[in-house]
Amino acid sequence: MAKPKTKQKKDIQKSGNKKKFPENENLLVKPLTELKSSLHQYKILGEQEVPDDINVYQYFFPNSERDCEYRHRRSILDEYHADSYLRKSIYYGYFQLFFMFSCYFFVCHPLTRFFDQGYFMQSQLISWVSQDLLQVFALWPQMVVYLHVGYILQIVKLPSKIEKILQFIWSILSFYLFSYYIPFTTYKNWVNTSRAFSAICNIAMTMKFHSYMVENRKFRKEDPKYKPKYKDFLYFVCAPAFIFQKQFPRNEKIEWKFFLIKSIFSLMGCIGIYFLTNDWLLPILETAEKTDFVTLLLELIEICFYFNLAVFYLIFENIMQGIAELTRFADREFYRDWWNTTNYIDFFTKNNRPLYNFSLKYIKTPIMQKFKISHKLGNYIILCFMAIMHELVIVVVSQTFTPFVLIIFILQLPLIGLLQKFEGGDWGNIIFWFLYLLAVPLVVAIYIKSNQILALFDTYN
């Protein structure tokens, strides 16, 4: 009897198929308490305990649109709250040890430089990175003002015949928000860090604009008397969310101690990235023209790995957590356990949940419903969309279009099918990370050899 239950659970995990249950039961739309009761009733888990609230929907319906809805959830690596997964895990001490070692490294390294060379940090690099900083921060209120166009279009009542014109308007405006700042950053001659920040902010605001327009159109169709509220719009603009809802899960109050800790960790992350850039990356760039491609690739593997970890921890576990705390945004699942992934699709669905949820709701699901394509092809479309988003950032930073990232993404698509036999096992995880740790430095090495990255540091040199 145990094997059929196991098989049934695996079928549900992979496809979210509701036919496994009686036809009058739609578990996908049930609230959490009723869902748990149904799981026990049908004995899907056998004698196992039903997962915690954070995992119930993703455990049984990982590819469903219900998974895009916001709920009260902790971050996996939340080291502050006693009820977090990390604090309850037996590996919490290991995480603390790794964190302390990182702090030790970033404290001792500048001290060694101070005793040997008489300074902690090079002021020249700091001034170069912080150049145009005030102008970059001024972009944020400009983008917020621009997003009010979407709100105005929603509160103005238009005849039904003009609905297609309205759809065309918001499509053009969504593209305009990003396309405007590409020549703008070129005209201002901003450094690459300022360009990257402006590109990421513009992509985020464009997705917010799109979601707000689409969701409000749905609400108007469901209820002709629906009127968008300004406070809901303003909260959506400030919250770390890309999908608009009438109501978001919110905490009762701001935990200022938690916000202070995340602010300190964010500062430490920026300092760590500075040391990685100054002590490891710049020396490699200085000798890149004289270094052969294979040697350059091997030198970049380690630095790219540390950069990935530092940027991930800085953005998803500190900056976004801090913004969420200020806005009392309760859904802190900005990522999942991407380190346990065994294939490319699983990785890109876990390492950036806001971007994936947006692409799932507004790209994959509509295309699948309209063209009747498979989930596999839909996942390929999501991967291509994410590749395009990364390529757009690189275009703004480098001021040229050399689609190396997009090409590498496309070349990796055949590997998804080849790695399916290893999916879910130890070898799948090992093979994936072996290929991933080569892919990122490979892209960087190609850009370096094509003089794209070297040109970015001309101002500093």
From TrEMBL:
Q: What is its main location?
A: endoplasmic reticulum
Residues forming the catalytic site? 390
InterPro entries in alphabetical order? MBOAT_fam, Oat_ACAT_DAG_ARE
Location of this chain's protein in the cell: Endoplasmic reticulum membrane
Sorted alphabetically, the Gene Ontology cellular component annotations on this record are:
endoplasmic reticulum membrane
Q: Which Pfam families match?
A: MBOAT
The keyword GTP-binding is assigned to this record: no
Sequence intervals crossing the membrane: 91-112, 132-153, 165-184, 196-214, 256-276, 296-316, 377-395, 401-419, 431-448
Please tell me whether the keyword Endoplasmic reticulum is annotated for this protein: yes
Q: Which UniProt keywords apply?
A: Acyltransferase, Endoplasmic reticulum, Membrane, Transferase, Transmembrane, Transmembrane helix
Residues of the region (Disordered) are 1-22
**Superkingdom, natural source:** Eukaryota
Membrane topology (UniProt):
Multi-pass membrane protein
* Gene Ontology terms, MF aspect: O-acyltransferase activity
What the record says about family reads: Belongs to the membrane-bound acyltransferase family. Sterol o-acyltransferase subfamily.
Name recorded for this polypeptide? O-acyltransferase
Organism of origin: Pseudocohnilembus persalinus
